[in-house]
């Protein structure tokens, strides 16, 4: 496998101290990337979304690295409701949705029965895909640190196939996160990698595209996709299955 050409998930925070877009872009260039997705929490830039996009466009104007303005938002309930405006996709080339402790039925108010919890998880993600406001599921199945942890091996194949088919049809990509292992402290890295690779193989069969992301929170981590490469190797995901970030 060759070098992964783009890092689609570098966290920036316009409202707080942290790496600037300029620092992240320089780090991306140093890492030899072709493209970098700079991701802000939607709530921080909601009031000035157009200005946020224009600033990132200006930062990348003279760089050989393609800069992608991106935002992310938490999924709030099992219907897939997310507090994000409908113009986010118009303003940003990459819009991420993710499960969090704020996700009702998954992060809190968890059903007692395992079957109900699984229904909540897949209803939630299918709802997000059907809503049409997002084009990337970030840290998919990051369920290991929630009140009722579920490991990747426990996810029913038929439900994964249902979700993967919907994602492929809606052109919603699956993130390959360099920090995916962090969500499962009770599993060894090797065990998590084996289990999550099974999920990725199911998605691959369904025609889902992938986006590699470092999930970096400082400039030194931009382009660190070593674990993503390990996941891709384990799951048999080829570079050709990655979204071409330079075309977003």
Overall description:
With 248 residues, the chain is an alpha/beta fold. It has one domain: Alpha-Beta Barrel (TIM Barrel), CATH 3.20.20. Helices cover 36% and strands 15% of the residues. A 7-stranded parallel β-sheet has the order 1-2-3-4-5-6-7. Helix 7 links the parallel strand 6 and strand 7. Helix 5 runs parallel beside helix 6, helix 6 (157-170) crosses helix 7 (189-206) and helix 7 packs across helix 8 (226-235). The protein is globular.
Output the CATH homologous superfamily. Answer: Metal-dependent hydrolases
* Overall pLDDT confidence: 96
Number of helices: 8
Note the beta-strand portion: 15-25%
Elements, N to C (H/E): EHEHHEHEHEHEHEH
Shape descriptor reads: globular
* CATH topology heading: TIM Barrel
**Major sheet: order of its strands?**
1-2-3-4-5-6-7
The CATH class name reads Alpha Beta
* Helical residue percent band: 25-40%
SS elements, strand count: 7
Catalogue the unreliable spans: none
Structural class by helix and strand composition: alpha/beta
CATH architecture: Alpha-Beta Barrel
Specify Rg, calculated over alpha carbons. Answer: 17 Å
Distance from N terminus to C terminus (CA atoms, Å) equals: 23 Å
Structural domain tally: 1
Largest sheet: 7 strands, parallel
